[in-house]
Amino acid sequence: MRESWVAPGPVDHAADLLLGRTCAGCDRPGPLLCPDCREWLDGWGPRLVRPRPAPAGLPEVAASAPYVGPLRPIIHRYKEGGAWALAGVLGERVALAGALVLATAAREGRWDAIAEVLVVPAPSRPQAVRRRGSDVTARLAGRASARLRALSRAAVRADAVLATTGPTADQAGLGTAARRANLDHRLRLRHPVPPGRPVLLVDDVITTGATLREMTRVLHTAGCPVLGAATVGATPRDPDSRAGR
Length: 245
Hints:
The protein contains eight helices and eight strands; from the N terminus they run H-H-E-E-H-H-E-H-H-E-E-H-E-E-H-E. The chain is of the alpha/beta class and 245 residues long. The protein has a single domain, classed as Rossmann fold (3-Layer(aba) Sandwich), CATH 3.40.50. Helix 4 packs across helix 6. The longest helix has 21 residues. It is globular. The two termini are 14 Å apart.
């Protein structure tokens, strides 16, 4: 059954017009996401994923699709091309992954469905926010939390409670060990979080798990149980594998 898509708002439509009319996934003339690329995304259901090797302290992670095919240029266009109209589509994908995390946590007795869940996005570097003109991950978490409320019927609220401490490099250009060293003890709380508040982490893609592990460490120190993490995509161990579709 095809999932519904979140309709973009007026600001998103304006951005779409300014960016031109080509598909973010395949660059063909037409809408920002063509029917073929939408169908490709809809062909994937969320699943639990694990990088190999997985860093100690990494919570349970669900991804909506593998980070291959049209998903790579779609996320790049959203983050680096100013295609903020894609926040609705990508937020929908994160929400599907988040619903799987919450269902798993409830089944395992780690979450009572009446408890409010705080959706926490991976913090963006200040220089990245300035360059892009928006905190794209926080925007994604906001859209995902709104959709997740409908999917799970749970009290869900997004809050960008984490920030970086000092300069960090772009994770995209680093290997596994360098990614972990780059973020080790480089995150902090922007403001206090009520101890005991369940948390769902959000990021666009999981590759090594370094970012999600460091987010978990900070929140656990603050007394917040991390139920898991939801991402749009997961870098597959075998890029050609279609297992788990």
